[in-house]
Amino acid sequence: MHHEGTVIKACGGHYYVSLGEEIYDCAVRGRLRREKQQILVGDRVIFSPHSCGQGVIEDICPRQTRLVRPPVANVDRALIVFSVKEPPPNTFLLDRFLVQAQHAGVNPAICFNKVDLGEENIKDIYNVYRRAGYPVVCASTRDGRGLEELRTLLKGHITVLAGPSGVGKSSLLNALIPGLNLKTGEVSRKLGRGRHTTRHVELLRLPGGGLVADTPGFSSLYLPEIKREELGKFYLEFIAYQNDCRFNTCLHFQEPGCAVKEAVKAGEISTFRYENYVQLLQEVMELERRYW
């Protein structure tokens, strides 16, 4: 009898497939090996369960998404984590992660962590991203604030965490999954940034439902291959205005009659969000000139 399950771990030719509460240690059918079909963590697979928790993967279901970093299939939620202090939030990096996630077809949500250090530090930023249309949660692993809201947000999804080092991604996972005890890295006082501490890819079960990768995703070091005219669609608050621009191909940069720029002047779109957009746009344009 065949069943459909999710690959939650791959190691040394063994694929661990989750079916409800059961985990099966599966080999791969010879046909798939001959066809050199790569099986990724996160893949939905058709498999034949055998006795003693063993099984054989017969086929791979079509993927909805495929990430390169980490190499996980079918991720549909990116939780982008920034801390309110130590280190303070950098909205340009945050926007960079948001663009990466949306370009990959993954719905982003934002978590401002360490709010026990002073929630007032991100009140204005919080409101800007909420008004733009992103789910935003404030959390603290010290006093438990926001953890239930995060569990609800991630329930039923395959999630990857993203964000700079030192913001508490591993601590959040430890708080969301009791007994996990992932190694965490303290923020370097000298450098003001954290050390990378997670090394392998595995999908962890969240209490109440959902899976989350234990390895951070995306990177602040790159932008995906985006055409300059595509960037604006990844700024959700621009969408309500861009049809009123004079030009259909408006980049919301130097063109006259730009409804987005008028909305910025009127205070309807955040100035810092627009400035981040322009900085990213110039980077995209430079990459086009260099490589395309």
Automatic annotation (TrEMBL):
<dbReference type="Pfam" id="PF16745">
    <property type="entry name" value="RsgA_N"/>
</dbReference>
<comment type="similarity">
    <text>Belongs to the TRAFAC class YlqF/YawG GTPase family. RsgA subfamily.</text>
</comment>
<dbReference type="Pfam" id="PF03193">
    <property type="entry name" value="RsgA_GTPase"/>
</dbReference>
<feature type="binding site">
    <location>
        <begin position="163"/>
        <end position="171"/>
    </location>
    <ligand>
        <name>GTP</name>
    </ligand>
</feature>
<keyword id="KW-0690">Ribosome biogenesis</keyword>
<dbReference type="InterPro" id="IPR031944">
    <property type="entry name" value="RsgA_N"/>
</dbReference>
<keyword id="KW-0547">Nucleotide-binding</keyword>
<keyword id="KW-0963">Cytoplasm</keyword>
<dbReference type="GO" id="GO:0005737">
    <property type="term" value="C:cytoplasm"/>
</dbReference>
<dbReference type="InterPro" id="IPR027417">
    <property type="entry name" value="P-loop_NTPase"/>
</dbReference>
<keyword id="KW-0479">Metal-binding</keyword>
<keyword id="KW-0342">GTP-binding</keyword>
<dbReference type="GO" id="GO:0003924">
    <property type="term" value="F:GTPase activity"/>
</dbReference>
<dbReference type="GO" id="GO:0042274">
    <property type="term" value="P:ribosomal small subunit biogenesis"/>
</dbReference>
<dbReference type="InterPro" id="IPR010914">
    <property type="entry name" value="RsgA_GTPase_dom"/>
</dbReference>
<keyword id="KW-0378">Hydrolase</keyword>
<comment type="function">
    <text>One of several proteins that assist in the late maturation steps of the functional core of the 30S ribosomal subunit. Helps release RbfA from mature subunits. May play a role in the assembly of ribosomal proteins into the subunit. Circularly permuted GTPase that catalyzes slow GTP hydrolysis, GTPase activity is stimulated by the 30S ribosomal subunit.</text>
</comment>
<protein>
    <recommendedName>
        <fullName>Small ribosomal subunit biogenesis GTPase RsgA</fullName>
        <ecNumber>3.6.1.-</ecNumber>
    </recommendedName>
</protein>
<feature type="binding site">
    <location>
        <position position="250"/>
    </location>
    <ligand>
        <name>Zn(2+)</name>
    </ligand>
</feature>
<feature type="binding site">
    <location>
        <position position="258"/>
    </location>
    <ligand>
        <name>Zn(2+)</name>
    </ligand>
</feature>
<dbReference type="GO" id="GO:0005525">
    <property type="term" value="F:GTP binding"/>
</dbReference>
<dbReference type="InterPro" id="IPR012340">
    <property type="entry name" value="NA-bd_OB-fold"/>
</dbReference>
<feature type="domain" description="EngC GTPase">
    <location>
        <begin position="73"/>
        <end position="219"/>
    </location>
</feature>
<dbReference type="GO" id="GO:0019843">
    <property type="term" value="F:rRNA binding"/>
</dbReference>
<feature type="domain" description="CP-type G">
    <location>
        <begin position="64"/>
        <end position="221"/>
    </location>
</feature>
<dbReference type="InterPro" id="IPR004881">
    <property type="entry name" value="Ribosome_biogen_GTPase_RsgA"/>
</dbReference>
<keyword id="KW-0862">Zinc</keyword>
<dbReference type="InterPro" id="IPR030378">
    <property type="entry name" value="G_CP_dom"/>
</dbReference>
<keyword id="KW-0699">rRNA-binding</keyword>
<feature type="binding site">
    <location>
        <begin position="113"/>
        <end position="116"/>
    </location>
    <ligand>
        <name>GTP</name>
    </ligand>
</feature>
<feature type="binding site">
    <location>
        <position position="245"/>
    </location>
    <ligand>
        <name>Zn(2+)</name>
    </ligand>
</feature>
<keyword id="KW-0694">RNA-binding</keyword>
<comment type="subunit">
    <text>Monomer. Associates with 30S ribosomal subunit, binds 16S rRNA.</text>
</comment>
<feature type="binding site">
    <location>
        <position position="252"/>
    </location>
    <ligand>
        <name>Zn(2+)</name>
    </ligand>
</feature>
<dbReference type="GO" id="GO:0046872">
    <property type="term" value="F:metal ion binding"/>
</dbReference>
